[in-house]
Amino acid sequence: METILSLKDATLALDSNAGRVEILRGISLNVHKSETLALVGPSGSGKSSLLMLMGGLERATLGQIIAFGQDLGSMSEDALAHLRRKNVGVVFQNFHLIPTMTALENVATPLELAGRRDAFARARAELVAVGLDHRADHYPAQLSGGEQQRVALARASAPSPQILLADEPTGNLDQATGEVIMDLLFDLHAKRGTALVLVTHSHTLAKRCSRVVKLRDGLMFNESGAVK
Known about the structure:
With about 230 residues, this protein is α/β, with parallel strands linked by helices. The protein has seven helices and eleven strands.
């Protein structure tokens, strides 16, 4: 299978009042084109931090991350932003919509930043894909949590990224609404072949993925123990 993202001994350490804290400790992992991968583990195990490294939203303290043929550690912030706009979609637990923009404008923004002349037409098509075209002119405060997450999903998928990173996307939703969001997420993956990396506490959701990676205390595990 084609590897689109590769971590080699990736370490993330941050300074705090209590001293240096190692969040991730030598993670080596490949993500393949069009696969679905679940990151599971207890709170504080490093799942979200690993997702941020994958998306170039955090820089590794040590080790190497190669994404789409580029070494993320050697890239400038502008180059990283360009790489993300073209290749990476991110869906957060807290939606992260721009409150002063309508649903349509929120989805169109990354397309405009990428220089797409059809940004608004594409954005409207993405809202149709998540069943929310009738709410295109509403602001986030006028939308339910499930509707806001649909907008966030449409925004993440609009640029047709190679990989979609989802950090507990149902964490702020009730069970029924969360199931709808996950069905949409897996449906978009199936139709477009986008690789999906999902951070989740749900074993049910993890089982829907083709591969599961377990984390604990910043280390990656398989059935036989820690994997460096």
